[in-house]
Design a protein that fits this description.
Length: 166
């Protein structure tokens, strides 16, 4: 493993951990965007340019920014000062899930298989299949879902501010 992998791994894990530990939702959303950027960097390091740039466009450019807008529009950034009852319970559950998944992957018969031959992806073919093939409906539904979430956040924000009587 080279130095770029370890730097990317460190920043991705640190950003994901920060997203879990911060109390301010805006800070959590921004750290989540950094974790998404780390995943995109992994894809780009592995030579999967299409998936890496799709990660940047969809998750950082749309989902993370939509989360930030939803938080800011609904005033969810106001943090209650009540301490959490079990602050390390989430870390313990995450460790148990990680150990379970790692054990399942290591004991899988698929782990001993030889890697497949190298396939040269063609971005034009991927785009044509995505926009003309069986994935068109899923793409449209995802776009409608994101639009509905943004409209819902705007409606909630408008309801919180009563009209001013001048």
């Amino acid at each position: 493993m080279d130095l770029a992998f370890w730097i990317t791994a460190g920043w991705t894990v640190a950003a994901a951990g920060a997203a879990l530990s911060f109390r301010n939702p805006v800070h959590c959303a921004l750290c989540l965007a950094l974790a998404f950027a780390g995943l995109a960097a992994f894809y780009l390091e592995l030579g999967a340019e299409f998936v890496g740039f799709a990660q940047i466009l969809v998750y950082i450019g749309a989902v993370a920014i939509l989360i930030v807008f939803a938080i800011l529009l609904t005033r969810a950034s106001e943090v209650d000062e009540e301490p959490r009852a079990f602050p390390w319970a989430g870390v313990a559950v995450a460790a148990i899930v990680f150990i379970t998944f790692a054990g399942a992957i290591r004991s899988s018969a698929l782990a001993d298989r030889m890697p497949a031959r190298e396939v040269k992806p063609v971005v034009k073919q991927l785009g044509m299949q995505m926009f003309q093939g069986s994935y068109l409906l899923a793409l449209e539904v995802a776009g409608l879902l994101l639009t509905a979430a943004l409209i819902g956040a705007a409606v909630i924000a408008l309801q919180e501010y009563p009209k001013r009587q001048d």
